[in-house]
Amino acid sequence: MTDPFCGLLIEKLPNLRRYALSLCRSGDQADDLVQSTVERALKARSSFDPASKIEAWLFRILRNAWIDILRKNKVRGHELEYDDAPEIADNVCHQGDARLMVSSVMAAVEQLPDGQREVLLLVSVEGLSYAEVAEILEVPMGTIMSRLCRARRALASKMGLSSE
Fold first, then answer.
1. Do both 61 and 105 map to the same domain?
2. How distant is the alpha carbon of residue 17 from its chain centre?
3. Most exposed among 84, 96, 99, 139, judged by the fewest C-beta atoms under 10 Å?
């Protein structure tokens, strides 16, 4: 018989990885961040309220782990892997229109300020409510709505879809 808590945790791993990728923009670093989140969740499982959504609880743990990493990096400095350097030329001639659109949308999302990008992805991709995102980020719900509005406007502008 399997542990229900571990089953829920395993079920949410893809969501955690997506969120981790949106924060650190590196596959290897995202995997490390998810692993750290799972370790912290297992250690703190007694503090999880089964009546609440595990996803919001896990996202908060992941975000706090990310903040810890950022603090360490401020002291240590930014490290860049040679393989992570962006390519100078992108061979897009053979890609389909849909792939180009996704690529350009993701590039535009990457240019958003961290707070806006984070809120946009948690609401739009992860499907969390404004209240859940406010709880995860520990900010008022009005701040979430404001950041989301600015993120959507900036994204529309970058994609040439704004009417302004």
1. no
2. 8
3. 96
